[in-house]
Amino acid sequence: MVCWPAACRHSARFFPGFENDLARAGAVPVRVAQDIQYERRDVGVLPKRDFGITLLCATRPLIELVLRRQAEAVANIALRPECRVTGIVPLASDAAIRRIRFDAGSGRSEMLEADLVVDASGRGALTLTLLDALGGQRPETTEVGVDLNYATAVVPVPSGASPDWKLVLTQPDPPTLGLHAVLVPMEDDRWIIAIADHGAAARLETWGEFLEASRSLITPTVYNALRYAGPPYGIRHYRFPVSVWKHFERLPRPPRGMLPVADALCRFNPIHGQGMSSAAKQARLLQDLLDRAAAEPDPIAALQAGFMAEVPSVLGTPWKMSTTADLAVPATRGERPANFEEAREFEAAPFPRCGRRAGRPSRHDGSRPGAAPLQQAGGARNHATD
What we know:
Blueprint lengths: L1 E2 L1 H10 L3 H7 L3 E5 L3 E5 L3 E2 L7 E5 L2 H13 L11 E7 L6 E7 L5 E5 L3 E3 L5 H9 L7 E16 L10 E4 L9 E7 L3 E9 L8 H9 L5 H6 L8 E12 L11 E3 L5 E2 L7 H19 L5 H29 L12 H9 L38
Parallel strand pairs: 3-11, 9-15
Antiparallel strand pairs: 1-5, 2-5, 3-4, 6-7, 7-8, 10-13, 10-14, 11-12, 12-13, 14-16
Helix pairs in contact: 1-7, 7-8
């Protein structure tokens, strides 16, 4: 998993020293775009340039461990481990939050008083259940059905790994090929690789099947990296059916003290890496609004109204970026926006803005004057070079 610059920057605002602690814990620094092999069928490999931005790549458990330690050091934060929130309890006489109910791990149920409940539970089931209990309407939703299936494997970095890149992003080639992959370094000298496909029925159960799928990508980069890697620590399978934006911001009278954030508000296709940065930006917006609302006669109402008014501006750009890419795949379920073809033409356009002259492809290794179009070896989409 990658701690994208926006996520790291906003996390460091809440927890000074977060990036340094994450790096000391073993996260791998990756320079954008110097250390990234970004591959597209139409333009080849994007030029390697140092943009002065660094990613930190680590497993999710490591990122969460560093964040947890930072949170534990804050005096007015209390963490309750091995607990699970089971309900948001409103006042009996009004549509306002009074407390939350949670299981304390031993099977007993407890209550906690709350003026404000921030629901970051993932799918927003707690908030939706609360709306149902109050007899209120559920929010409108915008959905883009991607039916994404992906498999991930973790392998030791082989001794002969390429010195030219640390991270690989191999894009699909819609509408003919929906297969794409990402290879990311992480702590303890390992790679995590995800191979994703839209609507694939068969799962990649074995390492041989995983390698064979990597041969079908638009370049041989991932296959050539993995063919010399040791056996994986296991293959995991995931399915993501639909990206969904629950428009809580459009509710005329949301329950007082209820604030869904992150995936409870908007779930992105994870292959595009938008969710973590979006959540961090929402947390920053919440902090800014808390500072402003403190001086209002009713801080809770001011905070809630302000967040719902401004959060669409945080979600709009990443939503368009991820869904436009997904809608280029014919099997994707969802309404194409009026400017969809224009957006697709922009996505497919040559990249003079990345240092390439229009009409002149760049070299496969990213150097100038730049590479020939991506080559196929051994037949259509068979890029293995034995």
